[in-house]
Amino acid sequence: MRTLQIYVKMIFYIYNFYFTGFTRAINSIPCLGFSLLFHVNNSIDMRRECILKALCVYLNEDYAQLLNEYNDCDWVNAKEAIAQMVMGIYIVRSEGHQPGDKPVDIGIVIEGTEVLCSLKNVAVAVAMLFGLTYALNLSYPRELKATFEVIQKGFFNLDGQKLSPKVQALKNKMLECVLKRLNLDARR
């Protein structure tokens, strides 16, 4: 989680430096409003969830392939949808929840089977899903290949020498962001 916390700030700065229009697009995604989450809400869990979703958006992948959200009052339909999932995370939220409210349940599904449940937050669930996928030598879902590559090679630095062009571009922007921050701090 400490590594993710470092990248949360870097990715947020990348959006601010390079993508002012992109930030507006992210704000239109439900539960992803940067201005709301980064300036009003102090929940670190919500910020991490927001950054993980934004990472998928940045990599032109659908975060709904990774994170599936359901209401607790519609649990029967949610169970049916979970049984159809190949690999992902389900989040059960209470009816009428507000951004920043804790989910009722967070769990991991692999090939329609609930592998883990009652996880602490979305960031832990993503880390556990990555760990299961990596340890069991499963292939990453095609729709989320770049996101898992960033998690593996960028966040956890496993086999980080060979990067795809998309992931290399993100890594370069993060390093550039760090250098800009260091230069700003050195000038003060």
Structure write-up:
- By secondary structure, this protein is of the alpha+beta class.
- It has one domain (2-187).
- It contains eight helices and four strands.
- Strands 1-2-3-4 form a four-stranded mixed β-sheet, with helices on both faces.
- Helix 1 (2-18) crosses helix 4 (44-58) and helix 1 packs across helix 8.
- Residues 32-37 have low confidence and may be disordered.
Count of the domains: 1
**Mean pLDDT, all residues:** 80
Distance between the termini: 30 Å
- Helix/strand class: alpha+beta
**Shape type:** globular
**Order of strands, widest sheet:** 1-2-3-4
Secondary structure layout plus pairing:
Blueprint: H1 2-18, H2 20-27, H3 34-39, H4 44-58, E1 67-71, H5 75-84, E2 87-93, E3 105-110, E4 113-116, H6 122-135, H7 145-155, H8 165-187
Parallel strand pairs: 1-2
Antiparallel strand pairs: 2-3, 3-4
Helix pairs in contact: 1-4, 1-8
Notable characteristics:
188 residues, alpha+beta, four-stranded mixed sheet, 4 strands, globular
A few lines on this structure:
Keywords: Membrane, Transmembrane, Transmembrane helix. With 188 residues, the protein is of the alpha+beta class.
